[in-house]
Amino acid sequence: MELFRKKSIPYLIKQGQGKSQLSKSLGAFDLTMLGVGAVIGTGIFVLTGIVAATDSGPGIILSFILSGIACVFAALCYAEFASIVPVSGSAYTYSYAAFGEVIAWILGWDLILEYGLASSVVASGWSGYFQGLLAGFGIHIPKAISSAYNPGAGTYVDVLAIVIVGIITLVLLAGVKQSTKINNIMVLIKIAVVLLFIVVGAFFVKPDNWTPFMPFGFSGVLNGAATAFLAYIGFDAVSSAAEEVKNPQKNMPIGIISSLLVCTVLYVAVSAILTGMVPYTDLNVKNPVAFALQVVDQNWVAGFVSLGAIVGITTVLFVMMYGQTRLFFAISRDGLLPKRLSKVHPKRKTPTLTIVLTFIMVSVFSGLVPLNHLAELTNIGTMFAFIVVAIGVVVLRYTQPNLKRNFKVPFVPIIPLLAVLSCGYLMLNLKSVTWKAFGIWFIIGIVIYFIYSRKHSELNKNANQQNR
C-alpha cells in the first residue's frame, strides 16, 4: 500500500508555507491575465489554419466550441481543487491528496510531457511568425536553421525557437512579480490585435467560403476538436501558480473560469472570420491570420497582426514554461525528483534550477521536433490530466466530505463525469502513433519511479523515521 500513500490537505498547505515558500504576489487580475496569456496565442495565430485545412474546414468553429465545452467541465473541477489545495504542482498535487503517490507521480510525469511539449509547440509557432515578420523587411533565415529536424526539407534545427526560449528563461529568473507585470502588458496588446483582426476581417468575409461547412464530415470536426484542445490548456497552468497567489481560495477559481470564458468567445469569432475570408484549403501555413489579411490586401493590418501574434505567442510560452518550472519544483520538493531542484533563490524567490532544466528540455524539443508531432502529444497528456482531476473531485467529495471548499463544482458527479467522457472521447480521436508515443513515455515514467522516486520520496523518509 506504500505506493498509494497520500498527503493530507493540511500537510500540503503546511509544505507550501515552509522554508522553500515562493513569493505570494499575484491577484485575480494577474491570474486572469496568465490564463488569457496562455490560452490566446498559438491556438488563434497558428492552430486555426492548420486545423481548418487538415481536419475541420469551416467546421473549425464547432471544433473550438466542442473543445471549449470539454474544458469548461474540467475547469470547474480544477477550480474546486485550487480552492482546497492552494499549492504549486497543479493536477500532480491534487492527485497526491486524492489517489496517493504512484498516481501523483504518473500524473506529474504526464504533466512534464504536457508543459514541455506545449512550450515547444509555442516556440515553434513563434519562430514561424517571427520569420514572416523578418521576411517583410527582406531578411531571410538560412533554411537549414529555420525549422525543426527534417532532412527531406533541408531543415535541421529551429534556431529562433531556441532563442525565444532563452529570453523567456531570463524573464522567469527575474522573479514572478516582475515577470507577470511584463506578461500583463503583452496580454493586453494581443487582445487588442485579436479585436483588430475581428473588426477588419469582418468586412472581407465571403459566405461562399463557408461551403462546404464540414468538408471532412463530423468526424473531421471531432478530429479538429481533439487537436484544437491544445489551445485551451492555459487554465491548467494558472492552477500551478496557486502557491504564489494572494487569497488563493477566492482568486484561483475566478482566474481559471473567467480566462476560459473570455478565450472561448474570441476563438469562435476568429475561426468564423478566418475561414470566411480565405478558403480553408489555403490555410495550412504557420501564420494563417496574417496570411488571410495579406490575401485581402490588408497588409498594414497583417503587419500589426504579425507583431501582435509574436507578442501573444510570447505570453503563451511564458505561462507554459512557468507552469513547467513550478511542476518540477513541486515534484522535487516531494523527493520524487532530486531535492536540489526545489531550491529557491533567496532574493528573487524563484526555483532557479528548475527554470534552467525547463530551458534545456524545451530548447531540445522546439529546436529539433516537427510541430505536428508536438501538438498531438501535448493534447493527449492534457486530456489525461483533466480526466484524473475530474475523478479526483468525486473521490474527495466522498472520502473527505467535510473539507472546506470555497468553490464547489455543481451537480457532482454529473459535471466531473461529463469532463471524463468528453476528454476521453477526444483522446480516442487522436492518432495511434500518438498513443504509442504516450505509452512509451508512461513506461519510462514507471521505471524511473521504481528505480529512484519511490525510495527518495519525502513520505517514504517520514515513514522510515517513524518506524525507527
Automatic annotation (TrEMBL):
GO CC entries: membrane
Chief place where the protein resides: membrane
Membrane-crossing segments per the record: 31-53, 59-79, 91-112, 153-173, 185-204, 216-235, 256-280, 300-323, 350-371, 377-398, 410-428, 434-452
Keywords, sorted A to Z: Membrane, Transmembrane, Transmembrane helix, Transport
Molecular function terms from GO: amino acid transmembrane transporter activity
Cell compartments where the protein resides: Membrane
Entry membrane topology: Multi-pass membrane protein
PANTHER family the record matches: CATIONIC AMINO ACID TRANSPORTER 4, INNER MEMBRANE TRANSPORTER YGJI-RELATED
UniProt-recorded name of the protein: Amino acid permease
Species this protein is from: Terrilactibacillus tamarindi
